[in-house]
Amino acid sequence: MARPEPVVAPISAARNRLWLPRVALASCVRAGLLRDTRGLALSDWQRFTHLPAGGFCAITWWFEGEIEAAPPGVAVDLATPRRRLAGPHPLGRPVLLSGPHTQPTVYWSPGSSHALMLVLMPDALHAMTGVATDRLVNGLVDATTVLPADWVAMCDAVLRAADDDARLALIDDFLTPRWRAARPRHGLAAQHVGDWVQAMAMRAATSTAGRSLRQMERRIKRWAGLSLREAKALSRAERAFVLGMAAHRAGPVNWAEMAGDLGYADQSHLCRVTRRITGYAPEELRRLVDTDERMWAYRLWA
After folding, report:
1. Whose C-alpha in 2, 4, 199, 263 is 20 to 30 A from the C-alpha of 148?
2. What's the CA gap between 288 and 295, in Å, rounded?
3. What is the DSSP code (8-state) at residue 54?
4. Closest by alpha carbon to 239, among 256, 271, 262?
5. What is 225-247 written as a DSSP string?
6. How many Å is the Cα radius of gyration of the chain?
């Protein structure tokens, strides 16, 4: 496989933006990721977007440009066959709904693009819409064919909004009353995904609908799309990434020590899990996040 050309990140860092919701939505919305490459001179390699496996759902709006998806689980270069994504949306722009992913994903834009990805907790999406998130695992569908009518209207309004700030305000105002009505009585408003996994497990275990282990596992699978074990594994891997990036700012990272602190059997175990979720070993991932435009989403997350 051809080796990727060197790229200089953060060439478009000023055009990438992380949006965090108001506190009332902290247990519903993980974040919003905005990407705008209009007017930027990017090489073909810099038009890739790499995303890790993760236990979240997402609604993605493409306001300008096209998007193509590479096959999951394979090494990707410019020659890799890709699938064009463009749902039959009445406004002519795709609005995509994705479920939890157990493998890293790679997308490519053939030209300038402008997009917003709203990352949602899967149990929150299920509670507010009734969408079966377990049927969305590793999936990507036209959101307008799956979501309820009021959500489709919101998606259309976001497409029509004047700018990104107006879009984010619209989403915030739309979600707040719906989450207030749908959220569990003992929900946990926390931005740390590990807290969310623990809270979901506690809620499943104490539900009056049935408290056997099998019933609890089925309930979590229906809410989150993944088993509790899978959700915990992804949570721990995200924790390792965030701590690793933070430690790197202070000097070389002791991955063996971090593996032990996070409960991995050893450094090799941490490396295997990180490769499965991101496609890269921890130190290589850290280097790419610092130096490669394709990893822009990882930089925002860190």
Report:
1. 199
2. 7
3. B
4. 262
5. SS-HHHHHHHHHHHHHHHHHHHH
6. 19
Q: How many whole angstroms separate alpha carbon 199 and alpha carbon 137?
A: 21
155, 149 contact by CB (below 8 A): no
Concatenating the DSSP letter of every residue in 145-194 gives GTS-HHHHHHHHHHHHSSSHHHHHHHHHHHHHHHHHHHS-TT----S-HH
Rounded distance between C-alpha atoms, residue 84 and residue 104, angstroms = 18
CB 290 within 8 A of CB 253: no
d(CA 8, CA 10): 6
What's the CATH number of domain 13-182, 2.60.120.10, 3.40.50.720, 2.60.40.10, 3.40.630.30? 2.60.120.10
Q: Decide: 108 and 85 in contact? Cβ < 8 Å.
A: no
Determine phi and psi for 78, rounding to 5 degrees. -65, -20
Q: How far is CA 293 from CA 35, 227, 266, in A?
A: 12, 33, 30
| CA-based nearest residue to 118, from 198, 192, 190, 62 | 62
Cα–Cα distance, 58 to 32 (Å, whole number): 9
Instruction: Tell the burial category of 229 from Cβ atoms under 10 Å away from its Cβ (0-12, 13-18, 19+).
Output: exposed
User: Does the model's pTM come out above 0.70?
Assistant: yes
Phi, psi dihedral angles at 118 (to 5 degrees): -95, 115
DSSP E strands: which ranges in 4-76?
Answer: 16-19, 29-36, 48-51, 57-64, 67-69
Question: Which pLDDT band, with edges at 50, 70 and 90, does 231 fall under?
Answer: confident
Q: How far apart are the first and last CA of the chain?
A: 29
What would the CATH number be for the domain defined by 228-301? 1.10.10.60
**What are the tokens at 181?**
């009505």
